[in-house]
Design a protein that fits this description.
39% of the residues lie in helices and 21% in strands. The protein contains twelve helices and 19 strands. Helix 10 packs antiparallel against helix 11, helix 10 runs parallel beside helix 12 and helix 11 runs antiparallel to helix 12. Strand 4 and strand 5 form a beta hairpin. It has 382 residues and is α+β, with helices and mostly antiparallel strands. Strands 1, 2, 3, 11, 12, 13, 14, 16, 18 and 19 form a ten-stranded mixed sheet that branches.
């Protein structure tokens, strides 16, 4: 069994991904730990897949033909690490049939599927698959992904964004912390994120109340940036250098005990992107696991380098996911009230940008923002 399965979902950030991958292997070598890395590419157009296969042949690549979203792509990576299938297999397989229950692409199996059926090994495209770190073999010959023998099940799963860089010593610190007997119920750990200038990045949170959702990332937060709701929500008064139990951590870097995945399953794919880690951490805590912010492992995060390429779509995903979270965990009424409030905020911003356009202030910028905010309104945040 390997120590860590790293899953990275990438979209059009080839050069940043290259730096992320190099940082992982450099730190793994220093920590003397074993890692497997799965890159799930959401139909990048910048040569990402070709770069990974050429420069990191030991990395397993799942190349999607369309952008299937952050949650679904991460779940593809999870299935690949659970069953040790060759990453060249179909990225969106159909469920196995009753007559061929375990003889299809192993990536299609639900998380609960056993590695054997009545003692018969599970197969992937006819190749026997074994679990718990044992290499996949075909007639005694190891099956490979880009030349590297395929194995299953890292003890821990590390979800990383492609615009992150692991800092030296982070992997060893995370492993030692999670392996400590007193931390046996710690299920998810968020390392300290920081910006390129060295300043800490807010990455730990409490679960939001309805009043918090009205302020977070809206005009109200711009008008009242130091209000108590946001201060409490982002745990600004707890200190960046203190290890602490929290409600959830930002999904740019989440170190997860394999048992958590096996118990609660993967991400909820109703969230295309954003709020999925909040929902996942809530499910983990409800199942009895602790979520911890751990500043003794550090990760550089360039932040939003994929999503900033489509600003209007980013706003739609961010706020519609927030609405979806409230509907799921607090009921349809709160979700709908939040949705209408957020839409009213975007309508106000259109009027604000329009007034600045009329008086001739940075008209190109104002026109771009009006177009983006109008697209959000048309979406209805549904």
């Amino acid at each position: 069994m390997r120590d860590i399965s790293v899953i990275i979902v990438s979209w059009n950030v080839r050069e940043l991904l290259k730096r992320a991958l190099q940082s992982i292997f450099d730190d793994a070598a220093a920590a003397q730990c074993t890692v497997e890395v799965v890159v799930v590419d959401n139909a990048s157009r910048d040569g990402t897949v070709e770069m990974v296969r050429a420069e990191f042949p030991h990395v397993r690549v799942i190349a999607n033909t369309e952008n299937v979203g952050f949650t679904r792509a991460n779940n593809q990576g999870l299935r690949a690490t659970q069953y040790g299938t060759n990453a060249a297999s179909s990225p969106a397989p159909t469920p196995p049939t009753a007559n061929d229950q375990y003889g299809t692409n192993a990536a299609s199996f639900p998380a609960s599927a056993p590695p054997t059926a009545n003692g018969t090994p599970v197969t992937a495209n006819g190749t026997p698959v074994t679990a718990n770190g044992t290499p996949v073999t075909a007639n005694g010959t190891p099956v490979t992904a880009n030349g590297t023998p395929v194995t299953a099940n890292g003890r821990y799963v590390f979800f990383l964004n492609p615009d992150t860089e692991i800092q030296r010593g982070a992997l060893r610190a995370l492993l030692d912390f999670m392996d400590a007997p007193e931390n046996a119920r710690v299920g998810i750990v968020g390392p300290q994120l920081y910006y390129a200038d060295g300043s800490p990045q807010s990455s730990r949170r409490r679960f939001p109340k309805f009043s918090t959702a009205l302020f977070e990332s809206t005009k109200l937060e711009q008008w009242f940036p130091h209000n108590k709701l946001i201060t409490d929500y982002r745990l600004r008064n707890t200190g960046d250098s203190n290890t602490q139990d929290v409600d959830w951590v930002v999904g740019a870097a989440m170190f997860v005990r394999r048992a958590v995945v096996e118990q609660i399953g993967g991400f909820d794919e109703n969230f295309f992107m954003y709020s999925e880690e909040m929902d996942w951490c809530k499910r983990a805590k409800e199942a009895g696991w602790r979520v911890v912010y751990f500043p003794h492992a550090r990760v550089l995060h360039h932040e939003a380098k994929s999503s900033e390429q489509v600003r209007a779509q980013r706003d739609i995903y961010f706020h519609s996911s927030k609405v979806r979270y409230f509907k799921k965990h607090h009921g349809n009424l709160q979700g709908e009230l939040l949705r209408y409030f957020l839409l009213s905020m975007f309508a106000y911003q259109i009027l604000e940008e329009g007034a600045k356009y009329v008086v001739g202030h940075k008209r190109a910028l104002r026109a771009e923002r009006i177009k983006a905010y109008a697209q959000v309104l048309r979406s209805g945040l549904k």
